[in-house]
Structure prediction request, 319 residues.
Amino acid sequence: MNNWSVNTEHHSQDRRADAWRQALQHVYLSTVYDYDTEHLKGYVSYCISPQGIEFVTLSGSAQLLIGDYPLQTESLWLSVVIKGEAYLHIDEQRTELAAGTILYGATGGDTVALELNDDFCLLTLELPHALFYRRLLNPLSISHGTLSGESATSRLLAKLLVSVAEELEALDSSTFHPVETALTELLIQALSERNAINTFKDPAHAKHFQQICHCIELRLGDSQLSLGKIAEKCHTSERYIQKIFKEAGLGFNQYLRRQRLERCKRDMASQLNGGLSLSEICFRWGFNDQAYFSRVFSAEYGVSPRAYRARQLDVQASN
Prediction:
């Protein structure tokens, strides 16, 4: 796992504000506060689990935290306030968030800000779409919302998130698996209870969708992969596959491109692939034109492949 942390108390007073802002930028956040930097306190801890769930623990003095996710729709984020008085700001609406309330949304959606009026602690998670498509969770159909303990599932999820925040630094790759499984199961159930999950009217279609997606996953490296090839492998018609994907709120080519981009994104962020060029990585996952890959990556994530890779590797090297 790639882990790092930043504590403003480890920096001189004249460097604290810059160190804090830079740390928040790495987790797609910015900050606003209305007091002298000598009173600024901030701590952020980051780790990514074996399945790609990004965990961020944040604590500090009163401030406004603003989500600055790049334009993308591949991930779902969660945030839970563990300590402190917090208010949610979306579209000029201000809503109080009680401790233990879970805030969720799809990356690339509405700009969300948290007003933290005293010393605070919170946990945020970003979960890759790949963890959910087999369970029919479609981020394209999810806007922001809250899970505030109205069901037993939501309450269990909130308690688990608080426990994860407390034990995060003690978890390793071997002990993370049951945590990932529990989080995924509880979140899917909680969102399903809120009707925020995109389901099929016909259960047979849901099963077929899972099978087709699995067939695609196994062949992402084939640059010649097409709707016709998948239809042949799955012993069905192209028209039927298009119908199934339409029910899921997706297009076949859209889905194929996003899955390839996610694999490239993951490989570019790994130090294990530091010796591979961008072209080698994109060719590995079925792109046969680096210029095209750069264009669609930039359009999807709001940053060029080269800049994204440099930022991720710099963060890992500095921590």
